[in-house]
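Reopening this ticket.

The earlier resolution said the output was attached, but the attachment link was broken on my side. Pasting everything inline this time so it's all in one place.
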Amino acid sequence: MASRLVLVIGDLFIPDRAAFKKLLTPGKIGQVLCLGNLTDKETYEFLRELAPDLQIVKGNFDVDAPNLALSKVVTHGSLRIGFTHGHSIIPPGDADSLLISARHMDVDVLLWGGTHRFEAYELEGKFFVNPGSATGALSTGWLPDGEEPTPSFCLMDVQGDVLVLYVYQLKTDANGVENVGVEKVSFRKSSNQAAS
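Inline output:
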C-alpha cells in the first residue's frame, strides 16, 4: 500500500512569520489537514497549492468562514483520523475530554489545535496530536510563564495501521540562531482495535 504525506498544521494567525514555507513544496504532500485559524486568504491559497486535497476545520478566529465544520474525519490506511481546532474541547486540551471526543468521533487518531503548543501521546489505544502553531503565534493561558511559543507543524506518513509523525519545530539556540529540528514519533493501531 502506497503512503502519502499528510501535512497537519494550524493556528497560523501571522502569515508573514511562516518560517516553514521553504520546507513545504507543492507536489510532495498529498493532503493538508488544517486545524483552523487561517485568518487570511493568502495562507489559504498557499495551503491549496501545497496539496490537491485541503481539509479545513473552523478555528475560533475564522470569523469570515461561517460554513466550516468544527470537526472532520478522514481515513488513511486502516486509521480513522479525526481533527478539530480544539476550542470546542472543554476543558481545553484536557486528556479526558480529548479521549471523549475521539470516542465520539470513532477515531484512532485525534488531531487538535488551539493551544499553540506541540503535543503527541497515546491514551487508551488512541493517538493524540497537537501540531502547535506554525507561526509561533502567542497564546494566552496555554504556555507556562516565561515560555515562548515554538513554531511547529507535523507531517504524517500512514501505511496500513502505522502512522509515523514527523514533528518540525523552529528552535532558537542561546546565541539567537534559528534551526529547524525534526523529531519522529510512531503509532501503531493495536490488533484488537484493527479487528473491531
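Reporter confirms the inline version is readable. The longest helix spans residues 95-105. The mean pLDDT is 87.
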